[in-house]
Design goal:
The structure is a single chain. By secondary structure, this protein is an alpha+beta fold. It has a single domain, classed as Cyclophilin (Beta Barrel), CATH 2.40.100.10. 18% of the residues lie in helices and 30% in strands. The strands form two sheets. The protein has an eight-stranded antiparallel beta barrel. A two-stranded antiparallel ribbon has the order 5-11. The chain is globular, with a radius of gyration of 16 Å. One of its GO terms (molecular function) is peptidyl-prolyl cis-trans isomerase activity. It catalyses: [protein]-peptidylproline (omega=180) = [protein]-peptidylproline (omega=0). Belongs to the cyclophilin-type PPIase family.
Length: 203
Amino acid sequence: MKNPIVTMKIKDGKSIKIELFPNEAPESVKNFISLIHKGFYNNTAFWRVENDKLIQGGCPENNGTGVLGYSIKSECLSNGVDNNLKFTRGTLGYGRFEHNTESCHFFIVTQDTPQLDENFASFGRVVDGMDEVDRISKVETELEVFLHRAVEKIYIENMTVETFGVKYDDPTKLLGLSKEETLSKWNATMEERKKTGSVDRFV
């Protein structure tokens, strides 16, 4: 059985192709495919860019605080899931605040990032168009406490997926964070990072 292949068309740019790995992260893959089929990612932006480290998008509000009303299980070793995909260059992962709060926010690393191994859900890898990922990772940014925001966001024009005839069900949905809870955790994270003074945080 062939793994699903996602095609991410970048507005005023090239396409990025990503292979998904349902055997290692079935819920993550089902969730990503479900959102693609709904057109959720179309016209969303890469709002966060850590230059030559990662690009992050998938937020419905394009600022990192958007919510969907549900979450999915964190498919990583530290949450009891036998997912051995490493965060090597080009790996696709889900952003989160804590375990089991993943929903739609995703990132692609542009360098090997072993500090994320076992603790974040990796579920895909770029197989074509890494030069476009690299281009996005070099845009001008501005620092906000511990992360860098793209000064001029780059948008996903559309995203499609080829499943090679395999039907993927919707993921098992967990109770997601509310908008208020998300903002509270966001502000708490900002305050924590201000105290430590460290900005070397990828996710």
